[in-house]
From TrEMBL:
Pfam families: DUF58. Transmembrane segments: none annotated. Residues 49-261 form the DUF58 domain. This is DUF58 domain-containing protein. It comes from the Bacteria. InterPro entries: DUF58, vWFA_dom_sf.
Length: 301
């Protein structure tokens, strides 16, 4: 059977990032340096899936019962024991649906490309990956697992993702921090359009529970530079309310408020030892992710 293709698995981008798989592994493991055992120490007792036998594979893992039924050799694969688990938290609130004229992707599409690529890179390193999507509530919560079938479930979920309702991301992060039973790496993909102090408190809550946190903030260039100079009415995408103002005065106030917002979040992340990176959606996502991984590797090399 042919391998399924998914929109958010850009083969060109993945090819460019393939040589960064080791860097991705080192990035993730860097957070746990000296804190846990080797993430690849044999096999757990949990069966993951079958795959066709290829010469060189340890014959002890052949499933003879399947051979008796199908007259073909299959190998039993088990989830490798690992203390490294990763959850990708994708904000799918209404504001994430915005796409300006300079960007070919909406913020949600961009975040989905990042999430899909990170899923593959970590799956290639036999890490357990889970997916959480949120808007006004937690919409999807896939546990952190290994295996091809689970990876396909993540891809299908991302494919079906679309902008939802307004959100309180900080509330959902607090909920996740309270309910996660095992320490994990949390990668948050969002525009972070929430109260910045509440967001910082939620990030710190995740860190307090010994989770490691990466925040990939996804913004459209319009939101960063506010190029509008001839408008008198602006609609809030999440509330639907109209804001009427002098365009120049509004632009000045907006940029000042955005700068304060970003600085508050950056300062909070720095205090909590959380990595924060800002992605603008007019930059190819593979270049942003590649640069981020290389930078992280240099920090934790």
């Amino acid at each position: 059977m042919a391998n399924p293709t998914y929109r958010y698995l850009d083969p060109v981008a993945l090819g460019q990032l393939k040589n960064l798989a080791l860097a991705a592994r080192r990035v993730v493991e860097g957070f746990y340096a000296g804190q846990h055992r080797s993430p690849a120490k044999g096999y757990s007792i949990e069966f993951a899936e079958h795959r066709e036998y290829t010469p060189g594979v340890d014959p002890r893992h052949l499933d003879w019962r399947v051979y008796g039924r199908r007259d073909k050799l299959y190998v039993k694969q088990y989830e490798e024991e690992t203390s490294l688990r990763c959850y990708l938290i994708v904000d799918k609130s209404a504001s994430m649906g915005y796409r300006g004229s300079a960007a070919r992707l909406s913020k949600l599409e961009y975040a989905s490309f990042l999430a899909a690529t990170l899923s593959v890179l970590m799956a290639q390193q036999h890490d357990a990956v889970g997916l959480v999507t949120v808007d006004d509530r937690i919409r999807t919560r896939l546990p952190a697992r290994q295996g091809t079938a689970h990876l396909q479930t993540i891809m299908k979920t991302l494919e079906a993702n679309s902008p939802g309702e307004s959100t309180s991301l900080s509330k959902h992060l607090h909920e996740l921090a309270e309910t996660l039973q095992k320490r994990a790496l949390m990668v948050i993909l969002s525009d972070l359009f929430d109260d910045p102090k509440e967001l910082v408190a939620a990030f710190q809550h995740l860190r307090h529970n010994r989770n490691e946190v990466i925040v990939l903030q996804t913004l459209d260039p319009d939101e960063v530079h506010f190029p509008f100079d001839d408008i008198t009415r602006i609609e809030d995408m999440e509330t639907g309310r109209d804001v009427v103002s002098d365009p120049q005065a509004f632009r000045k106030a907006y940029l000042e408020a955005l700068q304060t917002h970003l600085q508050t979040i950056q300062a909070g992340c720095t205090r909590a030892q959380i990595d924060l990176a800002l992605a603008q959606t007019d930059e190819p996502f593979e270049r942003f992710l590649g640069n981020f991984l290389v930078k992280r590797q240099s920090y934790h090399g």
